[in-house]
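Q: Could you write out the predicted structure for this multi-component system? I'm mainly interested in how the pieces pack against one another.
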Amino acid sequence: MKLVLATSNSGKVREIRELCSEFEVVPYSQIVSAFEIEESGTTFKENALLKARAVFEALGDESAVVLADDSGISVDALGGEPSIYSARYAGVGASDRDNLQKVVDELKKLSLSGSKAHYTAAIAIVTRQMEYVVHGWMYGEVTTTPRGDGGFGYDPIFVPDGFSKTLGELDSDTKREISHRSKALKLAKVVLKTL
Amino acid sequence: MKLVLATSNSGKVREIRELCSEFEVVPYSQIVSAFEIEESGTTFKENALLKARAVFEALGDESAVVLADDSGISVDALGGEPSIYSARYAGVGASDRDNLQKVVDELKKLSLSGSKAHYTAAIAIVTRQMEYVVHGWMYGEVTTTPRGDGGFGYDPIFVPDGFSKTLGELDSDTKREISHRSKALKLAKVVLKTL
């Protein structure tokens, strides 16, 4: 079965492809021209659904199966920020490094070297017959000292509970096992298999 | 597992209880005071989600599992009406018989004794971790001569494809097998079993 991803983010495409190897995973921009998907929701869940619905409509294919991911990190000491603004915390078009650096800077302003934090992933699936959106969470801490080159986003400053390495240092097999995205995808796959 | 229904409609409660015998099915009004749930959506899907979310919020219980159903009949010769207005086609507070009679009257105005039609059911499930909404359809014809006392809603005028009896005449085992609601619930149960 072909699973169309409502993202062009290469990090997400790679992770989802690894986690959904039983499906043919295709970014939507390989089928229709990429377009701006407004993430106007107030929650991960709403944004994931908005993206999946927008791509489903754009494809104009009643048999399409579209998967969207909206995810981000919530840092306790920053009142839960950057949350749904994780991809644009340092401004629209900011790089992963800029966003990560802003978290580090904000923590340092508070004279903190770390804080409890968690990642949330909302995975939405949209077909003609159904809509499904499910959350996965990963709890841990952020540190103000980035370490490791693996992963993407905030991975170099996130240390999952039970580990001493950051997600940027952990091997991808371990990350696949514990990540918010893989937890959500595991449930999503139950639904995908009913199609 | 306890499954809270976002409905007080006794016909729906009975059907869902029969179709979900592996769960403890409880109408929400047995847990909190019944309240008006505004069905302001423009689709069955939206209304089912609105109802399930409203009840989930009202319960204030993070571990709750809420199921809502929004369903109705679409009559081809009436331009797809009454659709999401099936429960209030003859006006707010109208009885099943009033609504059914209005479909019959509208068809007669067009000098028709029947029309192709289909039932749609949207079943929504809401928990803290996920939202799921799935459709089931049943195709057939409506007739202007009501027959049978079984079922509820428009069942006495709906003849499913492949049958000569109306849903009001068919036994409940047969209805359970072919109904829009049971098709949607079958998929919903796949998701409920992941909880």
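A: Regarding packing and overall arrangement: The mean pLDDT of chain A is 94.
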